[in-house]
Amino acid sequence: METKEFDTYSERKAFDETKEGVKGLVDAHITEIPRIFRLPQGTLSDKKPYVSASDPAIPVIDFADVHVSREHTVEKIKDAAGNWGFFQVINHGVPLTVLEDIQEGVRRFFEQDPEVKKAYFTRDAAKTFVYNSNFDLYGSSLCVGWRDSFACYMAPDPPNPEELPVVCRDAMIEHTKHIKSLGVLLFELLSEALGLSSDKLKSMDCMKGFHMICHYYPPCPQPDLTIGTNNHSDNSFLTVLLQDQVGGLQIHHQDHWVDVTPIPGALVINIGDFLQEKLIDLFLFLINL
């Protein structure tokens, strides 16, 4: 018997046109995930997880030490950024209530009435508030990620409050205020770690924009067959990531995948592609002086 060829584009389009995302599949009580979400066999065969109790862990930096020994904190950041490109920060000054509120606000948005949520659905990245499932739905050659997302530019031109969904509006605005303050400190410390003046990276417009992206990963009936987010690098200057206590985040380090164990109240800092490019340009400029 001849098997009908799998038309991935048509299936992706049909999924997209529901405007209900992965959450809609969960609400429909599916027991098997659609083919577009299934990882090709052997895709993750090059994954080499650490297996021993002495495995290295992503550095954790206590920002309470900034007020005790700024130089010591700068050295820790220099080491973490240079050797890992990632680190977690604790005692960073962002109130735990603010972090909890944004997590709850994101959950409220994705779990609200589908008809209300659909009003924000778009593939137009120029829109103020963009909700959809997989921004690269039609471009990914691997598989569709088991996630829904929304995104919004909160700076340099912040949206009018009424342009944001009521269920997460206040949380988004308050979260942005605190993360921007933390961003100022992070760029100062990174500048100092490079042996530059504290305001150097800021003067290069590294913190001019603020793009908030929030992902929602609903329970999956066949989690071993798919993935939430494909391996990637962030095309940003700096990513400040808040993960919940479920875990699942991994980073690639020295040809291995390392679990980023959730720490209550901690934030994960990721040195982005744009910052690395800026630094290369800066050092080439200094060399040619």
Automatic annotation (TrEMBL):
This is 1-aminocyclopropane-1-carboxylate oxidase homolog 6-like. GO terms for molecular function: dioxygenase activity; metal ion binding. The gene is LOC108837813. Transmembrane segments: none annotated. The keyword Disulfide bond does not apply. InterPro entries: DIOX_N, IPNS-like_FE2OG_OXY, IPNS-like_sf, Oxoglu/Fe-dep_dioxygenase_dom. It holds the Pfam family DIOX_N. Residues 208-289 form the Fe2OG dioxygenase domain. Its cofactor is Fe cation. The keyword Oxidoreductase applies. Keywords: Iron, Metal-binding, Oxidoreductase. The lineage of its organism: Eukaryota, Viridiplantae, Streptophyta, Embryophyta, Tracheophyta. Belongs to the iron/ascorbate-dependent oxidoreductase family. It comes from Raphanus sativus (Radish).
